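Appendix B. One record, verbatim.
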Amino acid sequence: MTTDTGEADARFKKWMHDNLTRAAGHFGVSVVGVPLAGWLDRSISAAVSKDGTDHWLRVVSEDKQWTGGDFWTGNHDANVFTDLRKPRVLDVFEWEEWRQQRAELMTLVPGRACSPTDVLRIAVDLPDAWWTELRRTTDTVAATPTERVNSTQDKVTERLVQRFGQAVDSTVHKWETVHGDLHWANLLGPEFGLLDWELWGRGPAGTDAATLLSYSLLVPKTAQRVREVYADVLDTRAGRLAQLYVVARLSRRIEGGDYPDLAEPLKRHAAALLDG
């Protein structure tokens, strides 16, 4: 027996819009942009304005039992990165109504998303300076000490064993700080910008390069550029392990119904890594 969830989904979407309105009232801002829903509608964001200055307002909603992790404060914690082109959280407002809501008023980073989806499906024309700034950004993040956690050895091992059995030595020998969600919908162009810092923290070295490469596989020219920019990262034992870990993680997303067109390219990518 199937259950029609359409009505419940519509109510939840309406409720999230109401949450955005409530947060805007709290901060004394006016919503001036079209609200955008996040993954599984768990967040809603929009451009807002106050006294002639544009900002960005994001509201995320979670069951309270899940709000104690690093992700809950990730955007605010990322204020430690003061010389990167990224949003800065200016104020935070939380309230509980059925679920826990967290509203973050941020600076607005100029530019447009390189892709409407995580996966790049249409080639983007980005200047060399953009790629230089991308590499500077991930290098800066990697070198920044933090107690925040993106991945653990247990999580890496679990994902790799689920996907590849015992074919891969899952031991991570090199760790670094990673953005953790480096995909094309979080990247701005033509002037570089990087959004969504919920997940940043310690992870396997090369995670960010491996993630961006995997999300680029449908556009071979862009995938090749990623490989060139991060050749010294990807072409190492740590980099290959990071790539296999990302393949395993994204394969779980695909099994859940996300981006099915990426399934075969990911399989070929993993096969090449395992044969190498």
